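stuck on whats below:

***
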Amino acid sequence: SSGINAEYGAVLHDTVEDTDTSLEEIEAEFGSEVRGLVSEVTDDKSLPKEERKRLQVVNGPGKSGKAKLVKLADKLYNLRDLSAETPVGWTDERVTEYRKWASRVCSGLVGSNEKLEGLLAEELTGKHGVPFPWTE
């Protein structure tokens, strides 16, 4: 079912970026729909980090509905994780910049899931004063 495929995509979305697993292996194991979703939310690691981050902001609005859900949930998880424990070596400034970037990414996904968007607003604006949806 497509709900299950979205869940697989959510669980597997970092696999291609963070391991030696290929999209072909994802497809062989989980099918073409899951491969497509994973591919849609996977950054091109051959690009510089700043370009990958820029593309997440620019390309977000054109993603499929399922990809937008994965992105919203992933950013919410990352933001909550960041609030619970700052990564070693991260300055307060870096944490603030990540939150602002995450708000810009997720603002391009608004209209996808009211519940997740409300939770993001609570995390970003309510707890940390970062505008969401982002306004330049």
